[in-house]
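Figure-free illustration: sequence to structure, shown twice.
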Amino acid sequence: MIRKKSLVPFLATLALGIAFVLSPMLSAAEKPKELEGIGITEHLGSTVGISDLSFQDDQGKPVVLGNYFNKHRPVILALVYFECPNLCNLLLNGLLDSLRKLDWTTGNQFDLIAVSINPKETSQLASRKKANYLKIYNRSGAEEGWHFLTGEENQIRSLASQVGFQYRYDEKEKQYLHASALYILTPQGKISRYLYGLSFPTKDLKFSLMDAANEKIGTMVDQILLFCFHFDPNKNSYTLHMWRIVQIFMSLQVVGMGSLLYLMWKKYEKNKKVVN
């Protein structure tokens, strides 16, 4: 529950998040002064230097970001901070809600990495935060795919720069000001998709992961669904692709007609043998 004295910074931070969800294309000249130094510049297709970025895991052990890649699994990356009183909690809670509805599980079909943008936060704090979310997620083996990391300022800034995430610390409010987004990365660390907002439709999340995995994972039904939907950057969502539906329908008609002709031919051959 948000205390009254933190209501003003909460609303200010939430307003910043909403502003970037609704107006991500604002030019620098149009940005209000409060939004200077805050935003997201998309670097779709760029590869993050995962082998050059070092952090600490929730057990305090030094790790390289690349440790969590090259497992044939896509990665959901979130840049947050664990003591954030406002936007970060809303982002992680919205993601958790989607993950609980998703029929894929972390550590199996994909990984989740949350990196703190506050260099003063500790691995002990990351561990407690991770434990709280895993308890609610409540899936066997899921802890293998959850990674809550802390690190040094230069490493955090480098990662943020590579994914296009701009943020700054507000001395007056004693908070980090930032936008709200998830970054979907391929198993090789390439930026595949940006998902903006505080809640994420399960369909969009799953299709984004499937895209990032180069369609190497998922069931046949998943692949058919992915074929029938396409990502609309204007809506930042996956929408039904009617021409692909028509293609499937026409293909089924051809298969059906071919099967019918084959059965008719078999019957004709059988009757011909009887006559002879």
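We now fold a second protein in the same way, so the two outputs can be compared directly.
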Amino acid sequence: MKHLTLLLLILPFAFQLNLNGAVVYSGIQNIPIPTTLDGVYINVDNAATSGSTILGWDLNPFFGGAGMANSPSFQPARTGTGNTDPAIRLYFGDLVSNALNFSSGFGGTGDPISHLGAGANQFAIGQEGYLGFRFTTDNAGGPYLGWMRVTFTNNTAGGVIHDWAYDDSGSAITVGLPIPEPSRTALLALFIGGTCLRRRRAGFTHS
């Protein structure tokens, strides 16, 4: 009973540690990108999606990811500062900072497939890559810097928005990291909980 009481005291604190971090992580989403012109509208704040325009939409990939549109609140990292310059592919461990090129206002990809290809800054068709971005939340927070893990195709099935993260302190963020993991306190709580269960089961066995 003493261990169970300690567990109940620790758990709220453990989960609070995870929620108060500077990095906001979407969790695995795996949002399919349709091969239609409508595509899918995504709200980064709440992970809402729709096949038509929704309130607070940020990104609208279409044709499997061969085309992309963005709202003023969401600016992908590009080869230049024009709002139709190609989005660039980033890699795990790269830094998303204000040193990258971002535009303003509504934007697109210009040539619909200019961000796809075999170049170092292009997204390889059918392979995972990372989109860097700068965005403002629905309640005008930010701008914040983030990354989005994607798989783009050239108007075929298999295009996916996997997940994303941003730093709500406004700091630069490393691509792919940090994805929040259970804190040591949370792990301790789980350990204590497991110990309690094992002891209870042992008690039932011997009774």
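Summary for the second example: Residues 17 and 183 are 7 Å apart (CA to CA).
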